[in-house]
Design a protein that fits this description.
five-stranded mixed beta sheet, elongated
Length: 599
């Protein structure tokens, strides 16, 4: 079972990212309150500093003698202190709640002292309303209710103490205003407190949901990586040995059974690839890797891959490249090939014997047009509106007999959209279908592309690194069939030792191995080459872990290509051609360029 072969990634992720219940987290926690009120207090401090800078200047012109000196000095202090606190808040946007309380209280004290001093030195009854204004401002800007209520009480107390100098006239003219202002300030403080509390709880909930989403994403990636590896590894053995058996003469019945085994094994691998692609595209985990390639070679490879399938079914297949479009271009060849392969496979699948499929490729200076047309059963109008949705299938009886999970066209649309292009469908029931893909593309000089996929691999020495005995046997069988000499080792440590004691033309490196995995072994090999001044040995990862984040790790470690398990013979041959025939600088000698991924 899966759990017997590797640790449970879901359990690991659950432990690393425990679920947070927002209702169990108090909105009164000091760090949450400080984060919510720090911006409010910051703007209050800036406004206070500006206000008292203006007041200090006005005192110079409005006052005289010692009154002028006292008020100017007090106003200057009331400007400098909030300004210093404002600078501190800019450096540390989320200080402790206690620090906010102290700063707020001191600023309120300076505010109160200025007004009180002004009244003591030059009493004017109309300025008593300043205390009401202060009470409201203190209630709104206080970081905690205790500071707010204390500041409101102090402002109103100062109003009544200073206003008592008016005698009975104060109670007739200002007492009611003071009481009403005090109640209004308390109400504003309570209301704002409720608003901020709700904002804090919303923030806690948002952070909780974000944490859960990150946990789910990591768990999904770990789970998909594990499932992909665990399914691809035995499937590699099945299909690898089946490909090796094709080279030996078999009785008719056995050959037919082997054909079924290969066909259904490839179908299983394709369904796995499609599911991983759909999940990756929906999670925005797929990244484009533009590279230079020859459109003619692209078309020939497509024809070589699907001509035998079409011929076995009795369907004609023609792949052409317009004269104006021939040449070299820059795009993500692997993803473009995936789109073309899906469309051609679908066309052959739904075209009866005696029909024909035509694939045409054209390009200009900045756009590529791929058209796949067949004269098969066509697509009903009711289905055309949803044909590009995941798991969307046409007629049940037809699609059941043809096979597939209904993911190919969904992947095509998502990939084409990711490339900045469009895909269009034109079809009539019983009259075939035409899919037209238009994607941005740049031209490239001929010398920028790699070798044609039809090149022949000469005799070379390959080091096969894999901890699984069956996988080693599969690779050895396939490589010897291609004319390569092989040596087999079981771990990354043995691979480094083998390179230290001899030279190899290419290294086929598994990734998941005990002691030293393939990524660590690749780094060690690159370090050894740099230390001893050796030529760069091509390293091709042969692995079941081919998610986008995995490919980035291999590239960063210094690998030159990736072949996905289960290993297809043509994919392995193509990777070897690139590794053995391309100059080292074209393969990304520094490990910074995009690496080839073939499946």
């Amino acid at each position: 079972m899966l759990a017997d072969r590797s640790a449970d990634p879901l359990a690991d992720e659950a432990a690393a990212f425990p679920r947070v219940d927002p209702h169990a987290v108090s909105a009164e926690r000091p760090e949450h309150v400080a984060r919510a009120y720090a911006p409010v207090l910051r703007w209050f401090l800036a406004a206070t500093a500006c206000y008292y800078a203006i007041i200090a200047v006005s005192h110079v012109f409005d006052e005289t003698g010692l009154t002028r000196v006292a008020l100017v000095l007090l106003a200057s202090c009331s400007c400098a202190a909030p300004f210093s606190a404002w600078l501190r808040l800019r450096r540390d946007p989320v200080p402790s709640l206690r620090w906010l309380e102290v700063v707020a209280a001191l600023t309120y004290g300076l505010f109160f002292t200025n007004v009180a001093m002004h009244e003591l030195l030059a009493f004017r009854p109309e300025r008593l309303v300043y205390f009401v204004f202060m009470a409201m401002v203190f209630g709104v800007t206080a970081p905690t209710l205790r500071v707010g209520y204390a500041a409101i009480g102090g402002a109103l107390a100062g109003m009544f103490v200073l206003g008592s100098r008016m005698g009975a006239a104060f109670f007739d003219m200002y007492a009611f205003v003071g009481l009403a202002g005090g109640f209004a300030a308390v109400g504003m403080a309570a209301i704002l407190r409720g608003v901020v509390t709700r904002e804090i709880r919303a923030r806690i909930l948002s952070e909780s949901l974000l944490l859960e989403a990150q946990s789910a994403t990591r768990a999904r990636s770990a789970f998909l990586a594990t499932v992909s590896h665990e399914i691809r590894t035995p499937l590699n053995a099945v299909l690898g040995m089946a490909q090796a058996m094709r080279g030996a003469p078999l009785p008719g019945a056995q050959a037919g059974r082997l054909d079924i085994l290969q066909r259904e094994g490839r179908a299983l691998g394709q369904i796995l690839d499609d599911i991983l692609d759909v999940v990756g595209l929906e999670a925005n985990d797929v990244r484009l890797r533009p590279s230079a390639f020859d459109l003619g070679g692209f078309a020939r490879a497509l024809d070589r891959l699907y001509a035998p399938i079409a011929r076995d079914k009795g369907v004609g297949l023609a792949v052409t490249v317009a004269d104006a479009g021939a040449g070299h271009c820059v795009a993500d060849e692997a993803r473009l090939r995936q789109v073309a392969a899906n469309l051609v496979a679908n066309a052959i699948k739904f075209t009866p014997a005696g029909g024909a499929v035509a694939v045409s490729i054209d390009a200009d200076a900045d756009r590529l047009v791929l058209c796949v047309e067949d004269n098969g059963i066509g697509i009903p109008h009711a289905v055309q509106t949803r044909i590009f949705e995941p798991f969307a299938l046409g007629d049940d009886a037809i699609t059941r007999s043809a096979g597939g999970a209904g993911l190919g066209l969904a992947i095509c649309r998502q990939l084409v959209t990711l490339m900045g292009g469009t895909i269009e469908l034109s079809s009539e029931p019983g009259a075939g279908a035409r899919f037209t893909v238009r994607t941005p593309m740049a031209r490239a000089p001929a010398e920028a592309s790699g070798p044609d996929g039809g090149a022949v691999v000469g005799v070379a020495r390959a080091l096969v690194v894999d901890d699984n005995a069956t996988n080693r046997l599969v690779l050895r069988t396939l490589l010897e069939g291609l004319g390569l000499e092989c040596q087999l080792v079981e771990s990354g440590v043995e691979a480094v030792d083998a390179l230290a004691s001899g030279a190899w033309d290419v290294i086929l490196m598994d990734v998941h191995m005990p002691q030293m995995d393939g990524v660590a072994a690749t780094r060690a090999i690159r370090a050894l080459e740099a230390r001893e001044g050796r030529a760069r040995t091509p390293i091709v990862a042969v692995t079941a872990s081919v998610l986008p984040e995995d490919i980035e790790r291999y590239e960063a470690a210094g690998m030159d290509g990736v072949v996905a398990k289960p290993v297809a013979l043509d994919a392995l041959a193509g990777a070897l051609v690139r590794a053995l025939c391309e100059p080292a600088e074209d393969r990304g000698q520094t490990g910074e360029g995009p690496i080839a991924v073939v499946a």
